[in-house]
## 1
Amino acid sequence: MSALLDIQNLHAGVEDTPILNGLSLSIRPGEVHAIMGPNGSGKSTLSYVLAGKDGYNVSQGEMLFNGTSLAYMAPEERAIAGLFLAFQYPLEIPGVTNMTFLKTSLNAIRRGRGEDEMDAASFLRLAREKSRALGMNDDMLKRQLNVGFSGGEKKRNEILQMAMLEPKLAILDETDSGLDIDALKTVADGVNALRAPDRGMLVITHYQRLLDFIKPDVVHVMADGKIVKSGGPELALELEKSGYGEYVGEAVNA
Amino acid sequence: MSEAKASIDKQTVDQVAKFGGEHYKYGFTTEIDVDKIPNGLSEDIIRFISAKKEEPQWLLDWRLDAYERWKTMDEPDWAHVDYPKIDYQDLCYYAAPKSMEDGPKSLDEVDPQLLETYSKLGIPLQEQEVLAGVRKVAVDAVFDSVSVGTTFREELAKDGVIFCSFSEAVKEHPELVKKYLGSVVPKSDNYFAALNSAVFSDGSFCYIPPGVKCPMELSTYFRINEANTGQFERTLVIADKGSYVSYLEGCTAPMRDENQLHAAVVELVALEDAEIKYSTVQNWYPGDENGKGGIYNFVTKRGDCREDRARISWTQVETGSAVTWKYPSCILRGDNSSGEFYSIAISNNMQQVDSGTKMLHLGKNTSSKIISKGISAGRSSNAYRGQVNVHPKAAGARNFTQCDSLLIGDKCAAHTVPYIEAKNLSAVLEHEATTSKISDDQLFFCQQRGLDAEEAVALIVNGFCRDVLQNLPMEFAVEAQKLVGISLEGSVG
Ligand SMILES: Nc1ncnc2c1ncn2[C@@H]1O[C@H](COP(=O)(O)OP(=O)(O)O)[C@@H](O)[C@H]1O
Ligand SMILES: [Mg+2]
């Protein structure tokens, strides 16, 4: 089967600062990949480059999403094509309720795909169902987007958006950080519920803990802007014991 | 620059390119035979306008007196706006569709071309059966210098509500007009008010009798159509004891390369226990992206809470006009009376806005609230100018002011000029102000969720304006939300 996401020899950075140095990664539909790596290794940068954030420039290499190059697509086009990023630091938008945001987002994506907008009643039903499944009460939907949310609530909210939008590829950037164990389980349940044969996931994390709940098919170690080692779930456990020291050195010396 | 970035920039360029031509959808012109007097301002012109309207002598004298005073006054220059000198002798002060020559007609007789103009603007001038769930709105439609029709008059009359054009009110209710005209905004109040008092041509008049809750929203829709013509309308709303009315005002004009002057006066009078809610969605043509053309909107709006427990609330959404000079104000004369001002002022491209309010606390235990949201984009300039005055006798006065500015891009400017004067020690005055920018991260976040940059800006700005939008009547709120998005088109890139 052809890859859902295929990254070859990606060199990218912010303005003139190179951050990703020849990164290659391939995810097939149905697979969950985890990327682990020390702080500053470029994990968030990778997620921004994939999602098309302004100021993040690709100087070399290729990113194919379902066979189409992402390089020429605006961020919203990538979202419409089914790429979703759960942010490490979700943004606040004062005055815009969670509900309004979800609805605007869902309908923008449906319009972008040439589908009809969802009617108000169906939307409400869906939003309630998905938020309850994530252990969020209905009040959360009426609150202003991420304003005054705790770290855990923000992360949960990202997963709610993912559940509503049902992306083809979900990139989760340190969704586990700042969560207590119960919240971690709920979020992991939410993610696991979305695992599907036609959906791929890229789970970025600093700690092995999350991978106890979301079982990855492949684990990659990232250091200094590239993948330095790949393996099965056992690699995560190994890292937990030995730390990243070895890889950081290797990458620097390479 | 990455290719992704290049493609976004290309999009922005395309959006900006279509911006001048398409985004102002009310920019069309109605080709219609008009009765238009030669340009210029003189006693003769004023006599002509007054005669045209078959006005009584007292009103002509009132106009002439205003004109005499105007001639001695200077155009104000304290506002944070900059525009070339207006040649008042090169303006036309009266233009009316020929079909309206013999005065107001019944709605069935109004020129179909005028009806079509209003239907294109989305303003129903037929009293058609309204859809379930939608409230009825009575409309007075003012086209250049005349009112072309007022809907639901008979139905309103059943409750004793008078709603008609100003010219008709002068004929049919002279005692009310005489009593209240100029009683809130004296004819020499300021330069533009004096000019209006001399040459005003039409406008709306409304009287709500004691104890009546007006059964539907009342509205006036102003349209400037003719080139080189000023619009000087006058609105007078009187809410008698214990009555209630919600009044809406909308405005648009064709896209023209030359600037046009709109100098209106709105007077509100609320008697004991009466309440007036006055909402405006001002969408005059703002000029093109280089600042060519557009309306000069120099308007005096003031409400008088004349008796105890009267309440007046102004809500405005200002998106249009090349230059706006406007300060809807409240005189809190009655004890326990209250005034509110909710404002959204958006400026894009080369627009200039200087707007705000004045709350004058005269009575005891009077309260006022000011919520102002200024949004500047492009190379525009947006100033909030507010004044809260507490008279020595106004014991227990309270004011709360919140003044927020949002900047889009780095070529625009926002100014806040609050002025507070409390001459009574028991006054409690609070003032909060913030300035913020739409961050790239917020935009990216929205785009990652499928919104394009303009939808993202519209969403964020609507959130920023929420407190004010919530105060608009439902029908207006939806329109206003869309308008917020449209008027900021081309502001990101
Ligand atoms: N906007 C930026 N400008 C310059 N350098 C940046 C920027 N963002 C990140 N970096 C640098 O890029 C490297 C990778 O950062 P990041 O992708 O956030 O790492 P991680 O998510 O793995 O912790 C770090 O050295 C960081 O300082
Ligand atoms: Mg990170």
## 2
Amino acid sequence: MADFDTPEYRKYRDIPKLEEGTMSDSAPFIAKPVFQGPLGFPGELVENWQEVAIDKMGDLLGKYRGLQVYLDSCVKCGACTDKCHYFIGTKDPKNMPVGRQDLLRSVYRRYFTFAGKYFPKLVGAKDLTKEVLDDWYSYFHQCSQCRRCSVYCPYGIDTAEISMAAREILDTVGIGQKYCNEIIGKVYTIGNNLGLPKRALRDTLLDLEEEIEEETGLPIKLPLDVKGADILLVTPSADFFAEPHIDGLIGYAKVFHEAGVNWTLSSHASEAGNFGMFIGSYENMQDVAMRVRQAAEDLGVKRIVHGECGHAWRIAYSFWNTLIGPWDFLDQNYPIPQHICEYTWDLIENNKLNFDKSENDHRVMTFHDSCNVARATRMGDKPGGQFEIPRNVIKAVCNHYYEMDPETTKEGTYCCGGGGGLLTDDLMEIRVKGALPRMEALNEVVEDHGVTNMAAICAICKSQFSKVLPYYKMPMDMIVSVHQLVGDALILTGSKEALEALEAAESSEE
Amino acid sequence: MAIEIGGKSIETDEEGYLVDLSDWTEEIALELAKSESLEMDEPRWEVVNFLREYYDEYQIAPAVRVLTKAIGKKLGKDKGNSKYLYELFPYGPGKQACKIAGLPKPTGCI
Ligand code: SF4
Ligand code: SF4
């Protein structure tokens, strides 16, 4: 593996001793001009970048009131310092949330506040030099925009917003991140983050249908582009491609089949994810989201259900109305949008699904709350539904379930380490180091309760964990999809297994 | 970046993937495998050849599930699983085998 050390589990969870500059060399690949243009950004660093950057900062300050409040209100109380997984894993002071904010704040002070303009030294104001710009590029790509720090800040300062703004400024001067921007480009040209063309998608789905039929004896479908379907499922394209995601997709299909609904996937909106948010670009976020609306209108569906994707759920739940609403053409009797966990839990509560929980008896489960779901959304109609509903679903289908340390779950959950556009090989070091607090908590329940698997409802979390678990000497397939558990335990009416169970019951009665 | 073969220089990206798919030859595959410290034995060639065929038809690498199934058919059922593929390509069949096959790296939330 790469040339850095995986951090050791900490004996004491106190504030790490600072090690300045440990991560100053970490920076993702820069996007080539071909990837910048389609997103509306200059291909490379523009000549008058300093002027452009400061103008853009002014523009953002005017547009997002919150940003200015966040930049103005920090009192350096220190409550956030040890709350960031990247700081815990790297000890680099610029990865303390307040340290990260200060990278932007010092420039803001210099150009936008009276004191900073005339007495810069007194207020820690700094000129925007190339060095500062490089620091931005490095450290704002060491923030997964998980918002954990904001939970502990007495002023609710949201470093994620600051990171997004910084990345938007960087894009505007021509320095984009290859990973995110290439992916957004693929959504525009092909329809999803993976670049999976329609024909490949269709044939992959047919292949999966064959596999499910072999397993169950039932013609369970993964319909694509069906006009007039009731439900449009939008899900991360990783669900068509990667492990363990694909088992989650099979799980959704089984649930829809058992519920007897008419549902469809869309090749135009074959992606729930929306990296426009990661790069802080409202315009790109809107363009990506618009594909879902178009697909829903073209197919004439009544409902939209979201597959297991963390940041997509945030965008749908919190931003869809302003981005691409109103949703007057959808059936108002159902939540708009609806999460697949809400959908499944509703069926379970209404006794519409039967399970053989023993199918999951070889698993001892725990659950990882994905940051965007936990801190930026809800599910169901009760507060905390975004925590309870996925857990309820898991407990309805598994006999063995244990919680991790409560400091690391629900609103206090730690990011997997790969969110916010960091899920790329060129950032492997920060990803592995940032996973430390989650790996510690997982390791504890492994040791205390024999936990064998951790479930998640986010494509990024699943991919990140399957990559970093081996660094912490745990098997990559420990991470599973929630709907994989559902699919494995679901008793499908008329399936081979259900028939065998029926026969067994009848012969024992005789 | 670039790799040198027979006096010719072949362009690769930052991570060593071929920039131009049509540059690929078996010789280059051997060279790319060497840079990954892998020996190109029979099963590895099977994977690489399947990836190239699939890409030719679909302009993308196959889903892991599609790949494992195809390899299971070619090399025997006991080999049709991702564990075996990771034995062949420790950095991941998708990424490492794609590189040797001269295909672009699959990226996304994977
Ligand atoms: S948003 Fe998350 S990753 Fe960013 S500074 Fe705060 S805790 Fe760290
Ligand atoms: S907790 Fe809030 S106010 Fe305190 S140092 Fe951190 S960002 Fe500033």
## 3
Amino acid sequence: MNMHVPAIELVSLTKCFGNSVEPAVKSVDLSVAQGEVLAIVGGSGSGKTTTLKMINRLIEPTSGSVKVMGEDVTNVDPVGLRRSIGYAFQGVGLFPHMSVGQNVGVTLQLLGWTKNSIIERVNELLTMVDLPADEYRDRLPSELSGGQQQRVGFARALASKPQAILMDEPFGALDPITRDALQQEFRSLQKKLELSVVLVTHDMSEAVLLADRIAVMHKGEIAQVASPQVLLTSPVNAYVAQLIDTPRRHSDFIESLLHGKASGGAR
Amino acid sequence: MSPRLTLLFEQLPDLLGGHLTLAVPAIFIGVLISLPLGVLCVKSATIRGPVMSLVSLVQTVPSIALLAIMVALLGGTIGYWPAFIALLIYSILPIIRNTIVGLESVDPAMREAAKAVGMRPLQQLFRVELPLAFPVILAGIRTATVWVVGIATLSTPVGAPSLGNYIFSGLQLRDWQRVIFGCVATMTLSLVLDQLIAVIETSIQSRRKTSLALAMCAIVGLVAMGIVPGVLGPEAAGFSKLQEKENESEKSDSSGPLRTTLEGQVVRIGAKGFTEQFILAEILREKIEDAGGTPEVLSNMGSTIVFNALAKNTVDVYVGYTGTIWSTVLKETDPISRIAMRAAVAGRLYDEYGIVLAGALGFENTYALVARRQTVQRYGLRQIGNLTPVAKDLRIGGDPEFFGRPEWQRVRNLYALSDITEVGMDSTFMYQAVADGQVDVAAGFSTDGRIEAFDLAVLNDPKEAFPPYDAVLLLSPRAAKNRDLVHVLEPLLNQISVAAMRTANRRVDEDGVTPRVAADSLLNE
Ligand SMILES: Nc1ncnc2c1ncn2[C@@H]1O[C@H](COP(=O)(O)OP(=O)(O)O)[C@@H](O)[C@H]1O
Ligand SMILES: [Mg+2]
């Protein structure tokens, strides 16, 4: 496999919904290298989810193109495409009538894996996301905590050993401690499996922590794409500056607290 | 247990069986039709509009009318099929409606998730949408079950035996115990089926395979019991069969040579829904049983339904009345003399339908205007003509069919009674009503035992406005060719007098004996 082919490449991707005049996504160009985490950050309604769903053809673009591993997605069967790309949902999206094991193995079953190899893979995945298989496999999603449900969601997204996964605000609904733990685990798993990831979030701090590069979206357009460092030091416009200011202020504030404490102790 | 209750329980296996074989398959096939149709309606708006309008429209047809319409649509076929199809149609609406509601209430996020994990449209439907809609769909199936089990009681008048037989015959015999027995049996059946479905629901949801299997078996078992009647309560059924056998052998001693002529033959006896018809059906039943045949009585049938059934050979023998046939079947308006009418009816039935009028039974059951003694004295009533001057102050009770008949138009015209107030009521209550003075006159029947029992006076009809109503034995084209059967039934001709018939009617209506017992003593006289 050619390591220089981007895992995902969007070329002047545009989406107009129905009869609305303003496109929800306007001429977006982005690429995600293999093994890279790209975060898409922006306010609510800026077009992040729409962009993400065009990658696995849950939404068909109005114009422009999407390439996955160099192949234009309009040339492949959308169902096969979706089975080969993991997707972690906003609000988890586990099927309430299926057990944890069935949820995790659903794509494998669709792909026609044998029963035994599915069981084996499900056990492996649950262990990977830190849910002992014997204890959790037969539970229903309603019998899990929010954090555990999100772990199952990850396990499901990773089931078919995808090269790339798409994540839509996966940590959005979790309490800070659970979120932090999951973020850490996600980062280490991603590195270990060399996953290419598109992570949609409205939380700039999360993006700074997890992403190799950040794309800032505003009113359907990409305002800037850069590494967290570049974004912090040289935002291209006031909107980006305002967005990136939040984590900066948080860390400054914490630092001043720590500093104040230290100097107070010296006094 | 009282003997009357025992009798009711003896009929239970057959009637419950009939009820189940109608209701359960109707619901089952209803599910098979409605579920895909409901899915199609959700997926396509073009289908949905017409389907929903049609289904809702059919649902507004009164059930008893829908059953009758089915008989007509099936070219006069009576019995299982028209009832089954009507019930099937009734089961469809609640299931379709709940399928649509259930599928539409599936969270769109679930649909998207199904798509995103790589399901194709049918996989989305079967693995996610239908399972999530399942509780709502099942609620629809439960509604359909309760409806269908209730409405199945109405299949009695189209000739399909059901628990409704208790209710219809109970109403006619004024035997409230019988009516209540039928209602309780129907309600119990509804509840049992409903609960079995509830068990299926919870066991599917909590994935308990054994209780699911048990509930399924219970339903299959119930239907099987219907198909093989007599499995239920084998003791009761066996006992009654035994008794019948004993009676048979006793009687067959006296009827000697006729004994085995109908061996192995099923003879279907049609009867309408009033006391006299029940008794006559029992008389025919006894004759056929004595000859070794297997009689099947289809009672509580409507006039036109039983007639069509006779023409189609789905009923073999039936006692009709010349006047009724004259007006409702042959569509004649002006009556002719008794003997002429019998000859004319015989000729035309044979020419037009192939039905054979074997002969008269000997009595006439004509309409008779009756009044209580006080009324007779007060207005000096001797004959119908005496009503004319006071008509506008009087109320006449009669069953609703009577007031629509040409006979009543004739009487009204000939005796100038157009000012009299008509009060429609079931014939069950008519005699009581005239005896109590709730109505002044009632349009009763000359053989009705209650004329005697309530001490009512019959008004003469000097202008012969009411046509003659000779009771005649009618045979289907096929039955008429059956020499053995004709041979068995011939001895009944010209043997039953008005007095004997009236007494038998009174014994059932007033003394509370069963039609079978009344038939027995009438035959033995
Ligand atoms: N299915 C749809 N039909 C019409 N408009 C839509 C649809 N999905 C999203 N939109 C609109 O497109 C815009 C971008 O939405 P979305 O991509 O969900 O934003 P974000 O994920 O950044 O909050 C919004 O204005 C939204 O109302
Ligand atoms: Mg979004």
## 4
Amino acid sequence: MSELRLVRLIEPDGSASGDDRYALPAPGELLEHYRALVRGRRFNEQASALVRQGRLAVYPSSHGQEACQVAAAAVLRDGDWLFPTYRDSVAAVERGVDPVEVMLLLSGDWHCGYDPMRHHVAPQATPLATQLPHAVGVAHAARLKGEDTVVLALCGDGATSEGDFHEALNFAAVFRAPVVFLVQNNKYAISVPLARQSVASSLAAKGEGYGMPSALVDGNDVAALTAVLGEAVRRAAGGDGPTLMEADTYRMDAHTNADDASRYRDDAEVTEWARRDPLVRLRAHLRAAGVLDDEEERAIAESAEQTAAYLRTGLSADSEPDPAELFAHVYAGPAPHLAAQAELLAAELTAEVHS
Amino acid sequence: MTATKLTMAQALNTALRDAMTADESVVVFGEDVGPLGGVFRVTDGLTETFGEQRCFDTPLAESGIAGLAIGMAMNGFRPVIEMQFDAFAYPAFEQITSHLAKMANRTRGRVRLPVVVRVPYAGGIGGVEHHCDSSEAYYAHTPGLTVVAPATNADAYGLLRAAIEHPDPVIFLEPKRHYFTREEVDTATPVPPIGQAVVRREGRDATLVAYGPSVPVALAAAELAATEGRDLGVVDLRSIVPFDEETVLAQVRRTGRAVVVAEAQGFASVASEIAARIGERCFHHLEAPVRRVTGFDIPYPPPKLERHHLPSPDRILDAVDALQWDET
Ligand SMILES: Cc1ncc(C[n+]2csc(CCOP(=O)(O)OP(=O)(O)O)c2C)c(N)n1
Ligand SMILES: [Mg+2]
């Protein structure tokens, strides 16, 4: 079994790695990614704060994984599809979905918040790996329709143990579906470490068993991610089938605010990964390259602050969704038994108001 | 001293500990049940006490977990597996319905599968989607599965002990909104046999039938009704399958009126089955048709709206009011 060689274009200290396979993206492009990374980081911090303030029920943060989030959104073209999980709110926002809409579900509303058809962003999936066969289906349909649409599907390291992960990869390979699978290997599935999910040389290595090209990429290096993902997207669009990508990254926060990570991992490990932070690395690189100065940084921080403020305002209202809507979309048409139940609730609510 | 105040999570933890101590073949596994102790801490400290062989984390795959349990049970173990949340048991549906439930029958009893599938179950905790399903009907509808739902911490202890000793597979539904409520638990109390309901409150006027998380709601309704001069009894099923028809029917025959309360959506539900049975077997004792108070037939609503969905004491009392009192 040949071990995959990690792709990295920028070292943790910001210097160029000098990879022989992929070229470093142009500084202008990298500066755009840096803007997005700062925005993503700020979004994560703001969302976590909103949980503490009781504005969100829960938030699975992608703190530390922003490079994956940004790259996943950046490599897609107009019309391409993204299939995110609960941890991929930042990717959805970077794909152009309104940040408040992305967070509506977690704020306690009953629906996914945004229009998946308008944005070509599927609803964020919570049941692990279950979205992956859907991604293959969308991709296969696009091929049947003669479109060159590419689908990028996200999942975590833990999710690679689910049957749906394997079924999706095999279907995609057999049908040569234009899908890019991006596994964010952040080393944990809640408390369970990677070693309990797989003893393969890498998660990416699993691609070979399904007959698809695969790559192992530094998941905190947005340059490497966009280079390798970009190539996979081009290949898929050109009819050359799916790719499996593993991003080597780390979940810096607990699984969610409800989780206590001190029960299963050492602070030392977290500190070690902080040295490989995706923002710190790109910032050092851009500053050394002379494309990022103090003034530019201030502007970037300010614009990230605007996104955070927008999120705060959007989620600050004590709005209760309309209970009547609970019955409105269960079926395409009116369902008689639901109508009776909706009337019962409406009558109760009227009585509540009058009492 | 065997009586202490325990949360339901602690009562379940104690049951697992006592069962693992009593029987070496009892093993516990699932997602995050090891060092973390389960997301609800039900398996807290078990790996530490009994070792990694007897309480362990698996790869993240519910179908694999259920399948592994089946194989281990075929080879001498008594697995107690955890599905992290109700809706995350669905990837294991094939293993549970096609194999766990049917193996004994397919082998004319030669292969018995004493597996317990623990399911943190139902809502009321402000959980986001997929974290609050009431999935009992799927299991109750599957011949071969025993389905148990404790309502008190004492029963959580006793019934889990009984489930682990049971010769057939048991789906053990733990009302997650009670995990952290504290109640007196006496572990020396004889374990209630599976299949036996209990009358939680005697009442002359009407009988409320409930199980799991709906029992305290029914009791609260009965309490309220008493202040309005109506005397309601409450039967706690404890086991959904087998259903203790005798206890339920005896109560309903005495009162002549019944309301079945369950959090699950009502269509094709366990509540429907109970109502139908009461209708068939007690027809001549009934003063009014049996009514059901259940969740609506919609996907479980989000935190901001779940209070509209869950059966409330008020809704139960409205149903009781509709039991044709004028005509008697
Ligand atoms: C089918 C299923 N089983 C269990 C869960 C509960 N759960 C939610 S997230 C999680 C861990 C997932 O780990 P991973 O795939 O590595 O993604 P990460 O959370 O690290 O991004 C678990 C077990 C779930 N959501 N779906
Ligand atoms: Mg993970």
